[in-house]
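REVIEWER CHECKLIST
Item 1: Sequence provided? yes
Item 2: Single chain? yes
Item 3: Sequence as submitted:
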Amino acid sequence: MQEKTTILQRVCNTGEKPAIYNRARKQIEPAVLNASRERGEHDIENEMVFKSNPGFVFHDSRGFEAGGESEFDKVKDFITRRSKEPRLGNRLHAIWYCIPMDQKCRSFTAGENKFFSQCDTGTVPVIVLFTKFDALHDDAYMELISQGVPGKTASAQAPRQAKESFANGPQLKILKDLQPPKYHVCLPDMNKDGADCGPLIQCTAGTLDNDVLQQLFISTQQTNLELCMEHALRR
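Item 4: Structure as written out by the authors:
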């Protein structure tokens, strides 16, 4: 959960903790929320909102392995209902699916395979976030060192080599054989100040077919001047 929150903070350009609201739009106290999580309870209906950037409303699901069949069914039901909401503010607009890449040869879990093979998201675009991608930078660095590349050069080349190796690796091939997402984004170093979420924001804006919705999304990017100008020029 902490990793996901960090990514959301980067997207919203804030260091604050999100406020959590229940279905009745009443704020849940952190102590009550933590107690629920310790009991293994998790409600995807809860809304996460950063008060400094209230244009974004996030929903979080725990891993399907943790919740089993029941959690998977809840997520499917949530996606089906919210994708058909008549009110724009209540509708589900995009799904960010996080897959941590802290292991070089990581294969998809049973829950991930199930989501991409059995969960019909309809018109809601899915963007896969390959998080902790900096772990692959470390692997690429060691590989370059083993080839005799000097340390400074290896350090500079490692991010590009990791991305190129990943592009030809098994994870993306497996996704293509299932129900491929609209986009995928590699996110390294999200725990560091100044982490770049630009590719994620641009991909998300690009998936929104509704022009009004796209403009609303762009308007929430209070600090992303480049994206706002790019959208304005396209108009």
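Item 5: Key structural point noted by reviewer: Residues 64-83 form the longest helix (20 residues).
Item 6: Recommendation: ____
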